[in-house]
Amino acid sequence: MNIVFATGNKNKIKEIKNLMPKTIKILSLKDIGCNQEIKETGSTISENAIIKSNYIKTNYGYDCFSDDTGLEVDELDGKPGVFSARYAGKYSNSAKNIQLVLKNMKSINDRSAQFRTCISLCHGNENYLFEGIVKGTITSKPKGNMGFGYDSIFKPNLSNKTFAEYTLSEKNKISHRSIALKKLINHLIKVNL
Ligand code: IMP
After folding, report:
1. 68 catalytic, yes or no?
2. Rounded to an integer, what distance in angstroms lies between the CA atom of residue 127 and that of residue 53?
3. C-alpha 114 – ligand 1 centre gap (Å)
4. 67, 68, 74, 77: which one is catalytic?
5. Are 138 and 77 in contact (CB under 8 A)?
6. Domain map (residue ranges) of the chain
7. Which of 13, 42, 72, 145 is most buried, by the most CB atoms less than 10 A from its CB?
């Protein structure tokens, strides 16, 4: 079966292709001729995931899933959260976002945080939502050079290294996205898509 993964993020496609059973073929936005950026105008992580999958289903007709992820820091009232991609401004990048998180946490002792992924699936006329959460702490400085985004400042609980010190397959075993994705895969297998 073919299903579109509505993301332009090559890292995510790589992570997800590693986890999907070979019977499920992932199509990218490029594969279906969609080159436009889908605006993330939702006020929550789940709303953004729903906006993206609905856009593809409505405009291109494909069954589709999309994910949205955010880093939620307890003492920053859940921020960056839905603003994770643009925390340091509209034209921000991961290095600037990380710098701002660390600056805003300079005098904070409780460094608890979590990654939350929401996956929205549009299958036929049905919509489904799957969630994955990994709890951890924010380090005082970046460490490691694998992964992407906020990985270098996030240490999962019971681990002595940041996500950026995990190989892709190690990260895939425990990550927020893989937890949500396993729920999606179980669903797809159950409905025999
Ligand atoms: P989005 O889900 O692609 O919109 O990502 C929102 C923000 O969270 C971006 O800045 C990403 O770099 C970051 N992000 C998403 N997934 C991860 C992850 O697995 N690790 C670290 N950062 C992530």
Report:
1. yes
2. 9
3. 12
4. 68
5. no
6. 2-191
7. 72
